[in-house]
Amino acid sequence: MTAVTSDVVTDQLDRALTERATLIQLCMYAMDRARSAGVVERLSEGLSGIGVSALRPDGTRFDPAHHEAGGITPTDDPALDGVIAETEVLGFADRDRVLRAPVVTVYQLRQQ
Q1: Contact by Cβ (8 Å): 39, 52
Q2: What's the number of CA atoms in the CB half-sphere (13 Å) around residue 11?
Q3: Alpha-carbon span 78 to 67, nearest angstrom
Q4: CA distance to 5, 27, 34, per residue, from 11 (Å)
Q5: CB-side neighbour CA atoms (13 Å) of 62
Q6: 22 forms bridges with which residues in the sheet?
Q7: pLDDT in tens, 14-31
Q8: CB-based burial of residue 67 (10 Å sphere; 0-12 exposed, 13-18 middle, 19+ buried)?
Q9: Is 109 exposed, middle or buried (0-12, 13-18, 19+ CB in 10 A)?
């Protein structure tokens, strides 16, 4: 009887985790397309409440292991070379697991 009960619980847990992942993907999709700041804020708060955070690394150094380069913007300031100018598409992390890397625009030193 215990093995059957354990299998049922495992199946229910697997189903709940699959449904959670599906709902997170749907919320990410909705945030990408939302035109209302209020809707984006509400979705962000809801995701945050379950451990999912939006990744907006503006102002940090570009790292191809954590970011996807979507474009560059020229700069004359050597200190900005390789720094993320803006986030084009939000990334998301579920606690410490990255679900989607952010797509970013990176400052690149203008060639003289």
Answers
A1: no
A2: 6
A3: 21
A4: 10, 24, 34
A5: 22
A6: none
A7: 999 999 999 999 999 999
A8: buried
A9: middle
CA–CA separation, 27 vs 45, rounded Å? 11
- Type of residue numbered 74: P
Cα–Cα distance, 61 to 1 (Å, whole number): 56
- What DSSP string runs through 71-107? EEEEES-GGGTTBEEEEEE-EEEETTEEEEPPEEEEE
Distance (Å, whole) CA 45 – CA 57: 18
Residue 86: band (very low, low, confident or very high) from pLDDT cuts 50, 70, 90: very high
Task: Look up tokens 């619980």; give the residue.
Answer: 9
| Residue 75 · residue 108 · CB < 8 Å | yes
